[in-house]
């Protein structure tokens, strides 16, 4: 398995912790992720399902790095997560700079590494 695959396995495994928090320890999810906002049990479960989906993408992609479509979807999951937490910090004020920094490290590293690995690019020029 390539190093990127091991990285995705690590990130997926760390995401499992958030899944657990979302389903079974919403207070910790509140303290660790959305400390400046009310977090209900429904919100925790929604966060848990969303995170479980992104965890699954990490695992699938780790074992199928040559699958461009799967890499793109996994890449986009990191972009969406980063944008979500960036807006939660900058616009809504529901999370802290500490949490944003952690997300930025994992999402940013993954985004850059996946761009370098799979050659995902945005063509700004018309054909």
TrEMBL record:
Superkingdom of source: Eukaryota
Entry's localization field: Endoplasmic reticulum membrane
Alphabetical GO biological process terms: regulation of auxin polar transport; sterol biosynthetic process
Membrane-traversing stretches: 6-26, 47-65, 71-91, 103-124
One Pfam assignment: Erg28
Membrane-protein topology: Multi-pass membrane protein
Keywords tagged on the record: Endoplasmic reticulum, Lipid biosynthesis, Lipid metabolism, Membrane, Steroid biosynthesis, Steroid metabolism, Sterol biosynthesis, Sterol metabolism, Transmembrane, Transmembrane helix
GO molecular function: protein-macromolecule adaptor activity
Gene Ontology cellular component annotations, sorted alphabetically: endoplasmic reticulum; endoplasmic reticulum membrane
Keyword Ribonucleoprotein among UniProt keywords: no
Main location: endoplasmic reticulum
Family the UniProt entry places it in: Belongs to the ERG28 family.
Protein name, entry field: Erg28 like protein
Lineage of origin: Eukaryota, Viridiplantae, Streptophyta, Embryophyta, Tracheophyta
């Amino acid at each position: 398995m390539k190093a990127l695959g091991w990285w995705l396995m690590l990130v997926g495994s760390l995401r499992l912790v958030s899944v657990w928090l979302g389903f079974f320890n919403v207070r910790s999810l509140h303290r660790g992720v959305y400390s400046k906002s009310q977090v209900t049990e429904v919100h925790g479960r929604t966060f848990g399902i969303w995170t479980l989906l992104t965890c699954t993408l990490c695992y699938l992609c780790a074992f199928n790095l040559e699958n461009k479509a799967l890499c793109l979807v996994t890449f986009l999951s990191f972009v969406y997560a980063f944008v979500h937490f960036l807006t939660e910090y900058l616009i809504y004020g529901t999370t802290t700079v500490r949490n944003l920094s952690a997300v930025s490290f994992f999402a940013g590293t993954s985004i850059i590494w996946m761009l370098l690995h799979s050659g995902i690019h945005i063509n700004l020029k018309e054909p």
